Structures are given as structure tokens and as C-alpha cells.
Amino acid sequence: MHRNRISRPALAVAGVLVAGSAAACGGGGTEASSKGEDGPVRVMMFAAQSYRLPVMMAEQEGFFEKRGIEIDITEQPANLQGMQGLDATKSDVGQVTVGTLGQGWQAGSKGAFFCGGIDVLQTTLMAPKGSELPSAEEGATWQQVLKSLKGKKVGIQTPVGSGLQKIFAAALEEAGVEDVTYVNLGGGSSAAIAALGKGSVDVAQVNPTGTQHILNAKSGKPLLYMPDGPKAYKDYYGSGWVAPTRFLEERPEKAKAFCAAVEEALAFIKAPENRKSSVAMLEKDTGVDKPVAELVLDQAYGDYSTKLDKGRLDATFDSYVELGILKGSPKPTFDTLVKPQG
């Protein structure tokens, strides 16, 4: 995996709306519109999210064009489960979490991961400025950080009972903590930032670019980057590029070329000599100020990779069944839900 250990405490969920869509189950057979092998590839993404950068840079730098791909970007509906969103927008490609893919498949959606996205769920716990809660930056272990949440109000990004909430509860259980009060703040950053500012929660889950807004303004205290701690975050896969089955069967060369272009874009983004253009694109596409964009670039992309690891994904599917996020039947596995095209 591509890791940037220096940035760990500052990181959070990249494009939490992608992850947040794991809160609901999909339905109906997801299918892309029929455009023919030479038609544009429609890419569904949430607006103003940091996970868009590889696609936007691939388009700007001609990585799609040189592979014979024309892309058509459409906004992902916020009120639909990710697999449902693909169907509703007649899209060929989108990025969803393991939970979202599995729930949609078990509800009848026909799709699969074909290209890697983010290796982990990039969640950071943030406390209000001046909080006395222990933090990893101050030398606390992840167990000490999570144990300190006993009896506290925790701002979460999806409702109680959702996949992401169950994952967080499993992480707390690893540290021996059950007694917390959950406050659903929603998937956007603004509510979490406001709640931390008012002190209405003791800790909140935050995501890029909200994490970087807080760090740049010095208005909060990062406690723990969750993939550095409990196995519920450290050992399990985050989100990947998904496509309807028909797209993968009818346009496999386009799927393979899309993944290759994204891989080239990730290398471009991580190269120091391309920093200026990458920061400029983040500013333009997400609407953040330059200092925030620079923090996002430094902190958010170390966990991005187009690779799809079978062992990690199967372990994630198995764990999600144990947690009740996915059903045991039909059984979600790498072989049924992952069709690598890279």
C-alpha cells in the first residue's frame, strides 16, 4: 500500500459521502446505458470531494485521451445508495465502499469492483480545540484514545445501525468501550465542524476537506487516524471503483483503460514536480483555499491505489457479515464481487 506515515493523525474519510452511502441497501438491477465501445464513459462522483482528484487530473493531463477514452462526469445523487445511483444516472463507473457494493449486490444490483480506490476507511477522530482527551500525536496508544471516549458524545457521519456506525462500534469494542452516546451529524463536513466549534460533541468523525479546514484554522484537536489503530479500520478495505456487470462485459477495454489512466494520475499527483497543478485542481474542483488544498494533497492520497487485494477484500467481506453489515447469503466474496481490470 501507499502510506505516508507522517500525515496519519490528520487524515480522515476521503469522500465520506461515498462511504456514507453504505447506510442503505440498494435495489433493482444496476445497468449502464448502452453507448457502444466508442461512446463516452460516464463517471458518477459526488461534487467537491477529494477522491475526485485522480479522475480530474487524468482528464486534464490527457491520460484518458491517449487511451481512447472520453469521460462524461455526472453528479452522484445524495439520496440514493451508491449502486442505485449508478442505475439512476445511467453511469458506467462510480466509487463505493465494500459495504455499499455488497448491500447493493445482495439487493439485486449487478456490479463489481474493477479497479482499486482507497485501501482503508480514512476516518479521523477530532476533538474541540483545547480538549483534554488523549491523542496519538501526544503519544497515546489507539487503545487509550478510544478508552477515553467512554461516556462521551461522539459525532458520527451516518445513522446508528448503519454500516459505518457498526464498524466504529466494533473498533470501540476492541478497546473495551461500549458506553458512548452517538450523535448523527451527517456525511458533510460543515455539521461536524460546527458541532466541534460549539462543543456539542466531545469528538467527531471528520473527512477531507473538513479535516484540513480544521487543521489549517487550528480549530480542533486530532485524536486518532483510525487505520493506525483497531483492525476494523486497519485491516479492512475501504472503497473501490465499481461498474455495472454489463459495462464490464461489453466494454472491458474501456474499463481497463480507465483504471490505467487513474493509476497514471495517482503517480502524477504523488510526484513533487506536479504539486502546483494538483493543488490548483483541488482548489478549482473542491472550492477550498490553497492552504487547505495543500494539506489535502499532502495527507489524503497515500492510501490510494488501483490494486485490489484478494486477501484483504475477502477478510473485509467476512468481517462485514459478522458485524451484520452484509448478509451471509448470498455470500459476498472476492470471486463474486471483484473483477479486476487493471
From TrEMBL:
<dbReference type="Pfam" id="PF09084">
    <property type="entry name" value="NMT1"/>
</dbReference>
<dbReference type="InterPro" id="IPR015168">
    <property type="entry name" value="SsuA/THI5"/>
</dbReference>
<keyword id="KW-0732">Signal</keyword>
<feature type="domain" description="SsuA/THI5-like">
    <location>
        <begin position="51"/>
        <end position="270"/>
    </location>
</feature>
<protein>
    <submittedName>
        <fullName>ABC transporter substrate-binding protein</fullName>
    </submittedName>
</protein>
<dbReference type="GO" id="GO:0042597">
    <property type="term" value="C:periplasmic space"/>
</dbReference>
<comment type="similarity">
    <text>Belongs to the bacterial solute-binding protein SsuA/TauA family.</text>
</comment>
<feature type="signal peptide">
    <location>
        <begin position="1"/>
        <end position="24"/>
    </location>
</feature>
